[in-house]
Design brief:
The complex is a heterodimer. Chain A is mainly β. In chain A, about 15% of the residues lie in helices and about 45% in strands. In chain A, the strands form 4 sheets. An 8-stranded antiparallel β-sheet of chain A has the order 8-7-6-11-2-3-9-10, with no helix packed on it. Chain A has an 8-stranded antiparallel β-sheet with strand order 18-17-16-21-12-13-19-20, with no helix packed on it. In chain A, strands 4-5 form a two-stranded antiparallel sheet. In chain A, a hairpin with a 2-residue loop joins β4 and β5. In chain B, the strands form 4 sheets. A 4-stranded antiparallel β-sheet of chain B has the order 3-2-5-6, with no helix packed on it. A 4-stranded antiparallel β-sheet of chain B has the order 10-9-12-13, with no helix packed on it. Chain B has a 3-stranded mixed β-sheet with strand order 4-1-7, with no helix packed on it. Chain B has 2 domains: about 90 residues, Sandwich (Immunoglobulin-like); about 90 residues, Immunoglobulin-like (Sandwich). The chains are: A mainly beta, B mainly beta.
């Protein structure tokens, strides 16, 4: 493999992250349908001034880059503060949760000095001019994607080994509810999407709150860092949030379908499965053949 | 008057609406190498962090022509990533970093000591996004534009408060928090009137 594609993969490993990252990228195009059924063809679409959609699935915060979304459907009524939402990703995965569509009515006058509010609205440009639609009036958003735009896989599978040497097969691995692993290098905060990692190896840190970690990218590149593995309860941290932080840094689903979680204090090794190039090409060939046979 | 662009280079200026210093790094899109980093800000939970008000602008960088990605670290876990930044020789480009600031004014802190830590949550309070520390100095927390909640709890005194924070690009949101001992006299006064 030449060095250029390799380095590009490294870049992807560092930058193509999902979840809690605000990405300011290319313009988003979509067809927006409001609750009265009126359709708008919109360019430069943004929701709350961002191209990242924030919603909650099972009470957990999700932030999804719109480049990865196929469709959004907002149910409920326009008067709801929090409405049910169905987000269909380009991979075909469907996530059902809730979205805040009317949170700007806080009675505290001290939360927005200067008279500003984060407006719960969808904005963009149409052929007739700028568009501003309150999020509470939006029913559907159908995104228009370039066919050449790659589809980002939304779940990683692998194994997690704990400090006692037990190995667990886990699918849909996430780190603190995110698809990216976050670590520090001194004062620098870094993140890498788990799908670009092949191995996370945690070192010992007796009595320390920071735990060293060695990250091996798919490309073979190895990076050292550290993570905050503190089990000290912070003032204001509720039971559920504390237990989640301490015991469920890595979460996923076990083969039996049961939810899996492990804390940073007990995890030793995370191994991410990746298709080899041959497998990937075989699969794509098989998919293509299936498509041909189904056409017939 | 800004200095001229260095020979053979282009200039990238980040616009953060009044914020002069950010922790950020720049990655070359062609090679994946980090070409620049600047980390002047102290972490938000450091007791010694404060804004001097006379910070020199450090958001302008001269770079070789090429395509870059800018990653801006904030005071919470969420970063702001600006993709596809194209720098051309001899030209200056401007990119907006959609971050805002909030400031916590805690009245009655003397009963808890000079500084008190707080947590920054997402709106549903399901995830801790970051930590902070109140301060008698001017101190602003830089976060991506959006909605958050902060919680200050002091179990010894029973003080526990949750405040919503709405952060907009280019504005400084003031969060005023008073202890009960601070609020009581106001109540009495209003009753007398």
């Amino acid at each position: 493999m030449s060095s250029l594609p390799l380095s590009r993969l490294v870049l992807c490993a560092v930058l193509l992250v999902a979840g809690v990252v605000t990405v300011q990228a290319a313009d988003i195009e979509a067809t927006v349908v409001d609750r009265k059924g009126v359709r708008y063809a919109v360019r430069k679409l943004e929701i709350r001034g961002s191209t990242t959609l924030e919603y909650y699935v099972s009470g957990k915060r999700r932030r999804m880059d719109m480049a990865r979304i196929e469709r959004i459907h907002i149910a409920g009524t326009a008067q709801d503060q929090e409405a049910p939402v169905t987000v269909t990703l380009r991979t075909g995965r469907i996530e059902e949760g809730t979205i805040i569509i009317n949170a700007g009515s806080s009675p505290d006058n001290d939360i927005a000095a200067g008279g500003s509010h984060v407006s719960d609205r969808l904005t963009g440009s149409t052929s007739l001019g700028p568009l501003f639609v309150p999020l509470s009036d939006v029913r559907d958003v159908f995104f228009v994607h370039d066919e050449n735009e790659p589809i980002v896989p939304d779940a990683v599978t692998g194994s997690i080994v704990d400090e006692r040497g037990r190995r667990f097969a886990v699918s849909d691995i996430r780190y603190r509810g995110d698809e990216a692993f976050r670590f520090q290098q001194g004062r620098k905060k870094r993140r890498v999407a788990l799908r670009h990692v092949s191995r996370l190896e945690f070192g010992d840190s007796p009595g320390g709150e920071m735990r060293p970690v060695k990250i091996t990218y798919r490309t073979g590149r190895v990076v050292q860092g550290e993570v905050d593995a503190s089990t000290v309860r912070m003032a204001g941290e509720g039971d559920h949030v504390y237990r989640t932080r301490v015991d469920s840094a890595f979460t996923g689903i076990s083969p039996s379908g049961v939810a899996y979680g492990i804390g940073l204090k007990t995890v030793m090794l995370v191994l991410i499965d990746h298709e080899t190039d041959e497998e990937a090409s075989d699969e794509s060939r098989a998919t293509a053949e299936e498509g041909v046979s189904s056409d017939h | 008057m800004p200095p001229p662009i260095n020979e053979g280079k282009g200039r990238l200026s980040l616009q953060a609406a009044g914020i002069n210093q950010l922790n950020f790094y720049i990655v070359d899109a062609a090679t994946g190498d980090e070409v620049y980093e600047d980390m002047p800000r102290v972490s938000s939970w450091s007791p010694s962090a404060y804004d001097s008000g006379a910070e020199q602008n450090r958001l302008t960088v001269d770079l070789d022509p090429g395509t870059y990605t800018v990653v801006v670290n904030t005071d919470i876990d969420d970063d702001v990533v600006i993709d596809d930044v194209v720098v051309q020789m001899g030209q200056e480009i401007y990119k907006t970093v959609r971050v805002g600031r909030f400031q916590v004014r805690f009245q009655g802190a003397s009963s808890f000591g000079s500084q008190i830590p707080f947590l920054i949550f997402d709106w549903n309070m399901s995830t801790i996004l970051g930590r902070g520390m109140t301060s008698s100095e001017v101190r602003r927390f830089i976060v991506p534009e959006g909605r958050y909640k902060i919680r200050i709890e002091n179990s010894a005194s029973g003080f526990d408060i949750i405040k919503p924070v709405e952060v907009n690009f280019g504005r400084i949101t003031q969060v005023n928090i008073r202890t009960q001992t601070q609020e009581e006299p106001e109540t009495e006064q209003s009753q007398q009137n």
